[in-house]
Amino acid sequence: MKNVCAIVCAAGKGQRAGFDKNKLLVPFQGSTVLERTLSAFHVPFIDEIIVTASLEDFDEISALCKKFKNVKVVLGGETRSCSVYNALKACEAEIVLIHDGARPFVKRSLIENCLTSVKSYGSGICAIPAADTVAVCKNGKILSVPDRSGMYLLQTPQGFYRENILTAYERAFESENTSFTDDSSLFAVYCGAPKLCLGDPENKKLTSRQDFEGAFARCGMGVDTHAFGKEQNYIVLGGVKIPSESGLIAHSDGDVLLHALMDALLSAAGLRDIGHYFPDTDARWKNADSREMLRSVLSLLTEQGLKVKNVSIAIQAEKPRLAGYMEAMQNSLSSLLNLDPSAVGISAGTNEGLGYVGEGKGITVNAYALLCQA
Ligand code: MG
């Protein structure tokens, strides 16, 4: 017999996030929210995972679950309670840990604590103390403000002995009381007060689009250097032409700033570097406008479900003088990246005569980028 089973609820529509599909299936950190959640439950003390899926998403979720061992998909129902009830009926384990698919940041230690609570007290409901004051409201008016010291925000996982929670569900369904938003409230009505287990503020539920955007950030850095020596009376930095005694030697237009920036963006996304995507052995990129390359990089990020939050760029150049072009470069990048100019930081400095930069032999650019969920 399977000893511990995790039930992951994925049968909702997730409409509040405003995506055109189930929010658990949109690109997220290189995979999907559901895959992140399933990975979290892939621990030795969980014997089986049951995922609930709506009819609409059933095939997509089944395909995705094939990547994991010991995962079974069951059809959900009209409400969350119906879906969990179906999963409980399909489960044979002694203990079940029921979890929202939309909480991908659950840590192994929290899952362990929840399981320990079930073994010690018969149940374990992860919850965190309310940091804000909670009010009971009706028709836009505050009716009462309960004492905050006794208020908790309920999370998942919520763990029970399967026999007990199944009995509670059977009773709820017998009395057609099936609109509970979590399992602890149903258990409390039909089985008795469940045991609280300290949750984790980082175990957030992704509900709105803002939750997705703020859920994580990834930073990346990129560096590039090009040498002077091309017979040309300008250089290109950030898509802006700047008069210069000579141009920068390069296969492309030599926009050393955009090259460093592209590497920062690709690096933040965990992708290969620009040499991989735009090899200098490829004639397509000969004298290429680096802005076109940047647009390709931005589409790669979009495919990963990522967007740029801000960039920070430091140029090291003894010559030419860049002071008069800083604003133009900032505006150029802000339009290329579709960012407010305040999210594009550029600084420029000399090397005080030291090294190849100081000797005026070339320009080096360091770029940093921060990405978030698109
Ligand atoms: Mg380069």
What do these coordinates show?
- With about 375 residues, the chain is of the alpha/beta class.
- The protein has two domains: about 200 residues, Spore Coat Polysaccharide Biosynthesis Protein SpsA, Chain A (Alpha-Beta Complex); about 160 residues, 60s Ribosomal Protein L30, Chain: A, CATH 3.30.1330.50.
- About 30% of the residues lie in helices and about 30% in strands.
- The protein has twelve helices and 18 strands.
- The chain has a seven-stranded mixed β-sheet with strand order 5-4-1-6-10-7-11, with helices on both faces. The protein has a five-stranded mixed β-sheet with strand order 15-12-18-16-17. A two-stranded antiparallel ribbon has the order 2-3.
- Strand 4, helix 2 and strand 5 form a beta-alpha-beta unit.
- It binds magnesium ion.
- Magnesium ion binds next to strand 12 and helix 8.
